[in-house]
Write a structure and sequence with these properties.
Distance between the termini: 7 Å
Strand content: 35-45%
Number of strands: 33
Helix content: under 10%
Number of helices: 4
Structural class: mainly beta
Shape: elongated
Number of domains: 2
Low-confidence stretches: 1-19, 78-89
């Protein structure tokens, strides 16, 4: 099932995908949190390069909220003022304490803001990381002299401090400012962060210049963004649903097959119950598994074991459908992977294919979904009967509606005719709500779309159509991206001459 969020941009159409970027500072509200150091700076609405009125993620007051477009205006350099960064004297234009979203854009999903951050962070954590910061700026006035200008980012946290200066500057072309035409550039600034484990007490970034320019007119910084990190995102968190003897003791047979809980063999030897034990979710139990037998003449497709009714199990429902309301038994659109560790049955009685699946049955508009493994990974060991153990990855979706009569079942698609039983061990889940677009901005000839929700490391597709009434299957895929943590960002080149178009984010 496609999980889609519609976006309409009048008179723009999407073309080829380009590099993704996470916008940190872009609007008037973002820049009002900056101060001037030795140089006079002020947030203004009189100049905005991209013209998009949506905040970046660096505004600790209203991250991601709507705001007038704007930029940070710098006073011109005046000889003798100590500004800007000339002949060894320092000038820093300091930003606010970072939000968790800003740190994660720079440092990945394992980063967390310090307690002092306006976002209400945790103990503060950084991992060693490198990336690239992009700063859009107008070249300062140097009509009174000067031969060089270089823009950089200064950093200061937990005793570590220094600067990263641009390794290159991309000419974006001339723009009109309140004081006349100026050339617009993008500074490309590589950066490196060092590890700070759970005791990051503060962090602050600043804009710094290395220049001898002297002029009479102000100049502007319009956007600060971060190119996504080259390190792979962490795998999605797996929540245990069924893992102990207590969990599997609530399962029953389906189709006349024999099932029984087994405390003699376990995949993980975990003694903490999963969330699927309706008697005591998450309680301490005895390590175990589910032992299944089916008839030696049974072949084909269908359920072989039924799980307990989870309709009133809040922990289970929230694990497979984040954002649902267990109190009202209301489901929301969600998707994810269920992982089943199983031992491969013997096929001594015949057969040449075996596939395990899960059935989710509940009365959300009569919903009845049978999902089968897309991947079966050999875990490299055997159960106590000597059969190889695999992990099945089973993509699933949840419909928005209700959870009345919700229960899972294990199903198979196979022609095996085993003479011995096989084991189902740990059953875990990784889940996310349907992706949602949270911000859109125009940056020159590029459209930047950012949003939330998604399985970390999973792929998403950007679709486009000039006709909103077309079935989604007929929309055109115009970009592919990866979820980092639960966030996504995609940047694409646009053609202003193309017709009106619509956009949608689709997760598998």
């Amino acid at each position: 099932m496609k999980k889609s969020v519609l976006l309409t941009i009048g008179m723009f159409a999407l073309a080829l995908a380009s590099a993704q970027a996470q916008v940190i500072y872009t609007t008037y509200n973002d820049w009002t949190n900056w101060n001037g150091g030795n140089d006079g700076v002020i947030a203004v609405t009189t100049f905005d390069y991209d013209g998009i009125a949506i905040n970046g993620i660096g505004n600790p007051t209203l991250p991601g909220a709507a705001s007038p477009g704007g930029s940070l205006q710098f006073d011109p350099a005046t000889p003798g003022s100590g500004a800007p960064y000339v002949s060894g004297s320092s000038n820093y234009t300091w930003g606010p304490g970072p939000t968790s979203a800003e740190l994660q854009a720079m440092d990945g999903p394992l980063a967390s803001a310090p307690y002092s951050a306006a976002s209400g962070g945790g103990p503060g954590n950084l991992v060693a990381q490198s990336g690239t910061i992009l700063v859009d700026f107008t070249l300062p006035d140097h009509t009174d002299g000067g031969t060089f200008f270089q823009l950089g980012i200064w950093y200061n946290y937990n005793g570590a401090y220094g600067g990263w200066f641009s390794t290159s500057q991309i000419d974006l072309g001339p723009v009109n400012t309140p004081t006349g035409p100026m050339e617009m550039y993008q500074a490309v600034i590589p950066y490196n962060l060092i590890t700070v484990s759970n005791n990051l007490s503060y962090m602050q970034l600043a804009i710094v210049e290395n220049t001898d320019y002297q002029g009479v007119n102000p100049w502007y910084v319009d956007n600060v963004s971060v190119v996504p990190l080259v390190t792979p995102p962490p795998p999605p968190t797996k929540t245990p649903l069924f893992t102990t003897y207590n969990d599997f003791n609530e399962w029953s047979s389906a189709g006349g097959d024999l099932v029984q809980s087994d405390n003699a063999w376990s995949v993980s030897n975990d003694t903490t119950n999963g969330f699927g034990n309706t008697n005591a979710p998450g309680a301490i139990g005895t390590a175990g598994s589910l032992l299944l037998y089916w008839s030696s003449v049974e072949t084909g497709y269908g359920n072989i074991a039924n799980g307990p009714d989870e309709e009133y199990n809040a922990a289970f429902l929230q694990a497979i459908d984040p954002g649902c309301n267990p109190a009202t038994e209301t489901s929301v659109a969600a998707y994810g992977n269920i992982y089943i560790d199983f031992s491969q049955p013997d096929n001594s009685g015949g057969g040449n294919y075996f596939q395990v699946g899960v059935n989710l049955s509940y009365s959300a508009d009569g919903y009845y979904g049978n999902f089968f493994s897309s991947i079966a990974t050999d875990l490299g060991y055997q159960d106590d009967s000597g059969y190889e153990v695999y992990q099945a990855t089973i993509p699933y979706t949840i419909n928005a509606g209700n959870f009345f009569g919700f229960y899972p079942s294990i199903s198979v698609n196979s022609n095996f005719q085993p003479t011995n039983g096989f084991h189902i061990g740990d059953i875990t889940v990784s889940a996310a709500q349907a992706p949602q677009i949270s911000s859109v901005r125009l940056k020159g000839t590029s459209l930047v779309i950012q949003g939330t929700n998604g399985l970390s490391g999973g792929l998403f597709t950007l679709l486009s159509s000039t006709n909103l009434t077309l079935p989604m299957a007929n929309w055109t895929a115009v970009g592919v991206g990866t979820f980092y943590g639960q966030s996504f960002s995609i940047t694409n080149t646009i053609n202003p001459a193309s017709p009106h178009a619509f956009y949608s984010i689709k997760a598998p």
